[in-house]
Amino acid sequence: MAAAAAWMTAAAVVAVLLFLVASAWPLLASGRILTAWTGGWHPYAQPPSYGVGPMILVSVLMAAGAVTVAFPLALGLAAFAHGVGPRPLRRPVQGLVRLMAGIPTVVYGFVAVMVLVPFMRHSFAGTTGFGLLPAILTLSLLILPTMVLVIDARLGRQDQAWVVACRSLGMNHSQALERVLLPRARAGLVAAAVLGISRALGDTLVALMVAGNAAQAPGGWLDSVRSLTAHIALVLATDTFSPEYRSVAAAGLFLFLLTGGITLLIRRLAAGGEA
Amino acid sequence: MARFRLILCACAVLMLVAGCGGKDDNTAETTHQQQGALAAFEGLSGTVNIAGGTAHIPVMEKAARAIMTAYPGITITVAGGGSGVGAQKVGEGLVEIGNTGRPLSQEEIDNYGLVSFPFAVDGVCAVVHPDNPVGELSSEQLQKAFAGEITSWKDLGGADAPIHLFSRDEASGTRKVFWKKGLNKGAIAEGANIVASNGAMKTAVSQDPQALGYVSVGHLDASLKAPSLDGVEVTQANAASGVYPVTRKLFMNTKGQPTGLTRAFIDFVTGPEGAVFVQESGYIPLGK
To answer: What is the pLDDT of residue B45?
Structure first.
């Protein structure tokens, strides 16, 4: 049963990769895939250009930004729940994080459009409120509970002997966490970061609703931008035979390779560190 | 039994409504006409799935409601997605009717064997926030504003504040007609925000006092303001007469010639009864 599940999952992933390669084959075979990945998006210009370069840059910036904001917060929340915070507040905080994890993406997007976007518009003159920074902030909130839960589970699984040993050495909770428990939970921290990056890279709705979707390379944190995922969602609705539609394959393939590559890289780094 | 009682109640209410007020002749006639046309669905049952252009949805829903109320054995589903999705889904056989707010491309006709049924004319107009003092624009001003050459409302007779541009996605039929006829195929600034439906455009522009966007005229209401274009008021009457030039047809498309229930639905929408729904939705029926 378990083996069948594993084989099915592996087969599905390979099938997705094969489908993406097949869809992008005209681009791959003619060597135009590099142009498609680095070029700009000017579908109405003469001559037109259908590159997804700006979207790749935006997706990377968005995911990196969201994890940069969310990781310290996740670490803090997990530490709070594991001894740093006052005892009566620990369980409510854990419950709150679980609740956050269950809120659908579209709700985060909706609240961001109704609250964060007008706030950004009023705070920064000359901007529409939609843009890279509000998308990063919303995404960081979205990936935060996932990251906290992963770190939290890892800390909770640790051998109580370590905790006891720390206490007997006279360490308080914060010192034990900082010096012993968190370093020992290194794999958990890495897993949390990988999950966070993957979720932020793969999220479509928040980017679509909050980032503004202008297909341009960002000149600043407040510029209207379009992620790879939002680009696929927007362009998938075009005429199936249009050149716009073909760029979806290039975008999808890059997203697949990027997510896979980042996961492998971080796992490799983590394994190297633990050895 | 419960449903029967519900229909009885509905009939009683309808009669009451028809019985009061001075315009009862007119109303009674319309109701009578619709019953006449609805008779075409007698004996039919099954499902019609509709997807595509977002401008079509109000008309489709009104027609679907009228038909399904009269004939509970018929199910009609209405989904959005945009013109591109409409052509794609009907071409792949996923829905019976795919709506587009633009004529089909030659590739779509050749590859899928689609047949088009136009049923309404819709205007597309520039919109601003209701508090925006700008009440008229020239074609040239509109083109320059969307191209990003004019960047402040001050240059258009408004406040000294930057213009926030909103445009539509690559698959939008509304974008296509606005770009072609409203902007004379002029550039749209790359920094313009992109929204994915007429509804999303309405939300975005009605929230932002500095916004400049465009919607299908059928979506105009108090939350938006449509400045006149070259002195022509944006009304469906002006769009119908051709005085307001930025218009397009709304199409239903089927794969091959439609038959059975799908045929009956298309005849209903393109017929005089459908015209009432088209008008109620803010569009102009294509005269028959």
So the answer is: 86
